[in-house]
Amino acid sequence: MKNYLIIGYVLIALICSVYFKNCSSTAHYSYAYNLGKAVVWPVTIFKN
């Protein structure tokens, strides 16, 4: 079960990074920046 959660998190991060690179206000930054942003943003939602 833990492996599926990790794989799901990575897949969501990859999909979001492509979205951030193509359609967001940070599209002019590099793909690595947007990938890092996509990896971190779910954590920022649940920080409370």
UniProtKB/TrEMBL annotation:
| Name used for this protein in its record | Lipoprotein
Organism, per UniProt? Acinetobacter sp. A1-4-2
